[in-house]
Structures are given as C-alpha cells and as structure tokens.
Design brief:
The chain is of the alpha+beta class. The chain has helices at about 10-20, 25-35, 45-55, 65-70, 80-90, 90-100, 185-190, 215-220, 255-275, 280-285, 300-310, 315-325, 335-360, 365-370, 375-385; strands at about 115-125, 135-145, 150-155, 170-175, 195-200, 205-210, 230-235, 245-255, 290-295. The protein has a domain at about 180-310. α7 links the parallel β4 (about 170-175) and β5 (about 195-200).
C-alpha cells in the first residue's frame, strides 16, 4: 500500500490542489515579494515551500515529523530549519488567503425584489499551547447565499469584535451576535447603505426613545408573556452629549419559561466564574432576546427579523468545522509567526474545500432550485419547514 505522501511534488493530486489557487497568483513572484524564501537551500521553489507548510499545518505534523517528511522528499531540513521556514512563510500564507478571497465574486446587491445578501459575522478564539486564555481572534464574514467565507481577519487578543472590520455594501444584511452591538459600528454600517440585525444586551447601547427621551428597556417589556414578540422604534445615542442619535428598531422576544430559566442559570454561572455578583437587570434581561435592526417593518416583520437572526448559527457550524475537522485551534507552538502560518494554512485549506463544495451546489438539482428563489425567500423556507 502506498503512502499518500509517496507521490512526487508535481503529481496529479498536488497539481489539482494548485488549480484551486487564483490564476492571477504567481507563486514564485509572491514568495519573493513576501520574503518567504530568501535562502533556497533544500527548499528550492515556492511550490516546495507551500507543500512543506501545508503538510505541517493541515497534516498536523510536529516539527520533527515535518523534518522527517521533508527529508524523505529531498528537502534535508532540521527541526530548527523547519521552524524558521514556517515563521518566514506567515506573511506569504496570509497573502494566498487574501488572494483566494479576492477572486470570489461578491453577491448581487438587493434590488427589484431580489432580497438580501446575508452576511453572517462573528469571531472565534484560538489559544496557544499551555495558554488558559485567548491568544488569537479570528474574525469571519460568511456569505450564506454562496455558503462560503467572504472575508476574514486575524488579530491577537486585543482585536475586539467590530462590524467595521468588514466591507459591507448596499444590499447586504449583516447578522451578528451581541459582541458587535456597538453604537458607532452600527452607524458606520448605516452610512455604507447596508443593513444589520444585531443581538444586544440590556445595557450594550444607550437606548433612547425615538424623540431622544430616556428609555427604560426592561420596564417596557416586563409585561410580555412567554413567546410574545414586540417591536419598538427607538434611537441610540452616538456620543456622550447625545447630539447625534441613530434611529433603530428593537425587536424583542420573550423566551419560554424553560428557556428563560436556563438563560438565567447561565448568566449566574458566568458572573460567578468571574467572581462577580450578577446584577438584577442582567438576570431579568436573560429572559428575553433583544435584536437591533435597521430594517423597516415593510422590509421584514418582527417575526421575520427573528427568523433571519436564527440563521446566524450557520457561522457557528462553520467554526465547528474549522475546529473539529481541520483542528485549526490546535496550535503547535507559542511563536506568533509560526502560529499565524499555521492558522493561515488551515484557512487556505478551508477555502479550497469550500470552492470544491461549490461545484456540487452549482450542479443540478441544487443549482436550478436555488436560482429560482430570491435570497430572502431562501432564508425563510428552511425555517418554515
């Protein structure tokens, strides 16, 4: 039985993988411009370096295992030499990830009843070996209509979640969790002509009435019964002086008694885990779902806003695939450059897999069925089913 790595560097399988890269990418020119291959001893060309990086990251080989594999394939490298190659290749791998994302055709904007182009936005955390906290944060925008990643940004722990990281355009609808409920970010999305549905907490933003008066959120929803839905036309203060405000629509869902009790329990646990006493307002707010949206009632009813937001879990499934299948969170060492190389290499693999999956989605019967439905209708149908 032959080993999967027994093939030569330019065999059919490797050539097929390279065809997934954009035709505009010149591997040799890019590896020189990124400074990833200054010394060509042992590793003589860009393809050999790319294969080395992918075997280490996607193949989950240790430095010793990677060095052994490289030696078997004519690249005599020691463990320290492999580490140095990986560190220098970090910027180049980031360039390749950006190149693959750049070639993806943006979805059409809304118009003529075509619906919305849904962008699911969230971030996931990655930790170095032995770390008990967050070392890296991967910010992702997922195109639900195309079923693939549209934008990505890698930051260290100081890079907070923000809608401003993404190039939202008119006709696009961003669905994001409560970490993105920031007044100035929402205002920037509105200025770009895009729309948003963002989950919020009871004190994430300074809510005011539509006229600018003080507003008590919890008092306004306290009389709601379980499963009840309510919407309010409000505004958000954008500065301390409250000279500038952003009109918003708040959609509220009262959870069932069982779900509310579980949410209260999790809120208590989260506070105790950080050695804090949970606030009364926090426990009361846990019984509701608060969604801020720029959509007008004639564009989406309150029930449709809630249904659209439920689609956000598709990006949670994406993170689960990245971590359970590609194991992108199992960083092999603490070196920042090597870690970035590892993460980018696994991202590149994920993007190439998505492109292959698109070949199935674009073929009958899937292609003909989805082509007849506008994006918003496609979003509603599975939920109704």
């Amino acid at each position: 039985m032959s080993h999967p790595f027994d093939a030569q560097p330019f065999d059919v399988r490797w050539s097929k993988l390279l065809t997934g890269l954009p035709a505009s990418v010149d591997l040799e020119a890019s590896v020189r411009s990124c400074g990833a291959l200054k010394r060509r001893r042992s590793v003589r060309d860009a393809q050999s370096l790319l294969r080395l990086v992918m075997c280490n990251a996607v193949g989950h080989l240790s430095l010793r295992g990677t060095a052994a594999w490289a030696t078997m394939h004519g690249m005599a490298l020691s463990n320290p030499s492999v580490l140095q190659r990986l560190k220098r290749a970090a910027g180049w791998m980031g360039y390749l990830v950006a190149a693959v994302l750049a070639q993806r055709i943006p979805a059409r904007a809304r118009g003529g009843g075509a619906g919305f182009c849904l962008r699911l936005i969230d971030a996931t955390t990655l930790s170095a070996p032995g770390s008990h906290g967050t070392d890296w944060r991967l910010h992702v925008a997922f195109d639900l209509g195309q079923a693939r990643i549209s934008e990505v940004e890698l930051t260290d722990v100081r890079g907070s979640e923000s809608l401003s990281r993404f190039d939202l355009k008119p006709g696009q609808l961003a669905l994001a969790d409560r970490g993105n409920a920031k007044a100035l970010d929402l205002a920037r999305v509105d200025d770009k002509g895009a729309d948003y549905i963002v989950r919020s907490g009871w004190n994430a933003t300074r809510l005011r009435s539509a006229a600018g008066d003080d507003f008590d959120l919890l008092a306004a929803v306290r009389d709601m019964t379980e499963h009840a839905v309510r919407e309010l036309q409000l505004s958000i203060a954008l500065d301390r002086a409250e000279k500038h405000r952003l009109p918003v629509r708040l959609v509220v869902l009262r959870k069932s008694e069982a779900d509310a009790a579980e949410s209260v329990r999790r809120a208590r646990h989260a506070s105790l885990r950080h050695a804090k006493t949970p606030k009364r307002e926090t426990l009361e707010a846990a019984k509701y779902v608060f969604l801020l949206t720029s959509l007008a009632p004639d564009e989406a009813s309150a029930e449709e806003v809630l249904a659209l937001y439920r689609l956000r879990w598709q990006i949670e499934l994406l993170f689960k695939r990245l971590k359970s299948l590609l194991r992108i969170d199992e960083l092999p060492n603490k070196d920042p450059a090597a870690a970035r190389c590892w993460i980018y290499a696994n991202l590149l693999a994920a993007l190439l897999v998505e492109d292959q999956a698109r070949l199935l989605l674009d073929s009958p019967p899937s292609a003909s069925r989805f082509a007849r439905r506008p994006p918003l209708a496609v979003a509603r149908t599975p939920l109704a089913a």
